[in-house]
Specification:
By secondary structure, the chain is mainly beta. The chain contains two helices and 16 strands.
């Protein structure tokens, strides 16, 4: 009788311990997926293919484009576009691209500016004054450098960046699988840094997974990239 009671007690303890473990279990990330630590370099999304895509810019309404006034789309041979932003007026640029095989007309960047206020030297723009904006496209990772670096806004500039150019391979292992889906829905975001020597930091952004894009309100200009 004593042995039966002891066995019953042991079984009850084991059952309780298993129940405790089942209620505290957590789902771990997929193997091989690591998030960057503070101060480390994030995982940048790379353009798919061995060659950089071909970019075109439109929506500039006769503003300065690479030093010349243009109407309609313009192919970028230097991966750079410039236009005048005026305080108190809405000015914008839209950049699309064809992939390395020459196919498609895909969105990459939309930038709208209405309220440039403080220049990098600390001087203030009056209403109606203008500043030359330059967008430098990174041909390796999916990102841009916006100049003049340090330009600050009253009402934030609005930027939307599409990351479809990575062609689904978000972790860069040459495969499109469940790991990429996990990266996209759980880890991916917009990152920025000031200049070439400061650390990359994540910034608040709204993700549209169906469009494969991020939208962010920019209080100032710097470098920006889709990363995780």
């Amino acid at each position: 009788m004593f042995r039966r009671i002891a066995a019953a007690l042991v079984l009850a303890l084991l059952t309780a311990r298993c129940a405790d473990h089942s209620t505290t279990a957590v789902e771990l990330p997929l193997s091989g997926v690591q998030t960057p630590t503070a101060g480390s370099t994030p995982h940048f999304l790379r353009w798919a293919g061995s060659a950089a895509p071909t970019f075109k810019v439109s929506g500039l309404s006769g503003q300065v484009v690479n030093g010349a006034s243009e109407a309609g789309p313009l192919s970028l041979d230097r991966y750079t576009v410039s236009f005048w932003a005026v305080r108190g007026e809405s000015r914008s640029a839209t950049i699309k691209y064809k992939d390395a095989s020459g196919g498609g007309n895909h969105p990459f960047l939309s930038l709208t500016i209405t309220d440039p206020v403080t220049l990098p030297d600390g001087s203030t723009l009056a209403v109606g004054d203008s500043v030359l904006i330059t967008i430098n496209i990174d041909t390796t990772k999916i990102g841009v450098s916006l100049e003049p670096t340090g330009l600050q806004f009253g009402a934030p500039a609005q930027m939307q960046m599409w990351y479809g150019g990575a062609d689904g391979d978000l972790n860069g292992d040459g495969l499109v699988d469940a790991t990429d889906s996990y990266v996209e829905t759980q880890l991916l975001g917009m990152w920025w840094r000031e200049g070439d020597v400061s650390d990359w930091q994540r910034i608040p952004a709204t993700q549209a997974v169906s469009e494969k894009s991020f939208t962010v309100a920019l209080p100032h200009f710097s470098q920006y990239a889709v990363s995780w």
